[in-house]
Amino acid sequence: MRRWEGGSFMAIRNILFDLDGTLLDTNELIIQSFQHTYQRHLNKQVGKDEIIKNFGEILKITLDREFGDAGEEAIKTYRSFQIENFEKLIDIHQGVKEGIIELHRQGYKLGIVTSRLSDSAIRGLKHFGLMDYFESIIGADDTDKHKPDPTSAFMALKELGGKPEETILVGDSPFDVLCGKNAKIISVVVGWSALPMDMILKYEPDYVVESMEALMALVEKLKD
Hints:
About 45% of the residues lie in helices and about 15% in strands. It has helices spanning about 25-40, 50, 60-65, 70-90, 95-105, 120-125, 150-160, 175-180, 195-200, 210-220; strands at about 15, 25, 90, 110-115, 135-140, 165-170, 185-190, 205-210.
């Protein structure tokens, strides 16, 4: 694991989580949604590795770049496919539910900072019985400034009543690492990201954890 070298910090009281790829395994849902959209609008087959490269980016940015003038229609197609196939294609990463419940029990304030729309994020959390453990959910439709900009993290902290120096941000992409750095928040990357780890490590996250149990141990270490 990498160690925090960004300056002094207080005992950790708040934990902000990315959603897709961090808590929930939405990889297959996202990949199939993109493939369906490419096929319908561009009659093009795109491999999953090419799609994964854009994981963590705001959907509109990706689709406007890839589809140009057809970007708005592509977004409608993409979201329609997700709505129809949501529960069928999502899963939860190992140990996540148990870990979230325990962190909440220990008194940590938990928040979600995601590039997914808020309603969709809430739908995923409810599906796995996690909704009651989060005091803040900031989605892509809650602000015009998205990760790596720190605005969404600051919005979540305002709702939690927390300070950056008492917070860690847990994610699975460079967008999460940079959001943490820009907010002066400790950044933690999960080892189960679909993105190549060397692609993430070049942004120098403060810590990497290979399991939810390792995250729990890290939080315990940082609380003193």
